[in-house]
Amino acid sequence: MGNKQAIYDARLKRVADAVALREPDRVPIVPIFQAFPVFYQNKWNIKDLLEDYHRATDVYDHFYTHFEPDMGWDPTLFFPIDYMERSGITWFRWPGKHFDDVNTMYQYIEGEYMTADEYPEAIRDITRFMMHKWLPRSFSKLSGLSQIEFRNSMWFGHMGLFASFSNPEVRAAFDTLFETGKIVADFFAYVDEYRAHMKEKFGMPPIFASLAFAPFDMIGDTLRGTEPILMDMYEHPDELLEFIDVVTEFAIADMIAASEGRGVPYVYFWLHKGVDKFMSNEHFAKFYWPSLQKCIFALVDAGRTPVIYAEGAYNNRLEFFRDVPKGKVVFDFEYTDMDKAKKILGDNSCIMGNVPAFTLSYGTKQETVDYCKWLIDTCAPGGGYILDTATMVDDAKPENIEAMFETVFTYGAK
To answer: Per CATH, is 1-32+207-414 categorized as 3.20.20.210?
Structure first.
């Protein structure tokens, strides 16, 4: 690997210096790309990659040949259509089946997959609830899981359990799990192979060890839905808090396990429902922040570095974000005022952000350069800053992406 190892190590150090609130040799650039590499190469479309994720190697190699971020995304976002089709997933839509446009990224369709009156059931036994309710509701071909009952299998109760596997609906569910399990395992193996390829060919570290979500969002995104969980803060506050505690406990264990031995320490959180406009600071302090903060501290104790992507505006939450271990956490902002974020968080945590998607897609090259320079002037002095796109980049102008990189490599260097 030779020189690529040195490049890899230099990039890791540059980012690590920024995280630790030191001034690196240059402002690190770690943008979030989703479909842009597909559009930039213009050989395959999004549907092509979802049908055969191996094509992503060609796409991402082309991208990393022309652009050199300090850490990069692997193709983990291009979930295989085969797994979605065979499982009968109910909350995803994808091109070729639901959209005519083959360059439309898949869409998540939020729903209420746990009703308010099911809180006690989920709190009492989350595993049973997921098997009997959430999985059958979320995957049309897994309805048979609701027919299996493990908790009464002690002594000769096991005979009833064994007999349940003769049910054709149960057998069909397990056939589906075997088929989709193989597809997903092969996909994960491919992603790991590409991460190794990134290092060997480009000296490129991956941007994350694992992905994670705030416990409040785990419940809101997958079980209750946005409007119901926000109403639960008023109508079912005690049950919601108790369930958040249940989810937080296993979420922490899963986050630590998923990020073990991944080569980088960064656990990337996507915050969805803690934005300024969704709840008051009082509700944020009661329902959202304590469990997220607990995850952050647990990950830091385990030697990980949480990267908290605050999707939307979090201007009213910045004082909360100060209460984390110094120099151990990154806060990545989309619409948050970066000047304000630097003033409040700059002596405690690395901040990251936030070249606007609108500017990259519809602005001029000079507008891109000017905004990047403003970010560097505002956020980089004293260290603790990583330049990033405000959100996932899809249909940006290539000349604006080029301008963003060029500005960092020149204006952002010591």
So the answer is: yes
Residue 189's CB is within 10 A of a number of other CB atoms, namely: 10
Residue 152, pLDDT score: 87
Q: Kindly list the distances between the CA atom of residue 334 and the CA atoms of 3, 141, 270, 387, 390, in Å, as whole numbers in the listed order.
A: 35, 37, 11, 12, 4
Q: Where are the alpha helices (DSSP H) in 139-263?
A: 158-164, 168-197, 215-219, 226-235, 237-258
Q: What angle do CA 265, 267, 272 make, to 5 degrees?
A: 165
Residue type, 356: P
C-alpha to C-alpha distance for 375 and 387, rounded to whole angstroms: 8
Domain coordinates in residue numbering, the chain: 1-32+207-414, 78-203
pTM of the model: 0.96
- Per-residue tokens: 132: 């009997």
pLDDT tens for 331-363 read 999 999 999 999 999 999 999 999 999 999 999
Residue 181 predicted with pLDDT over 80: yes
Give the chain's largest Cα–Cα span.
75
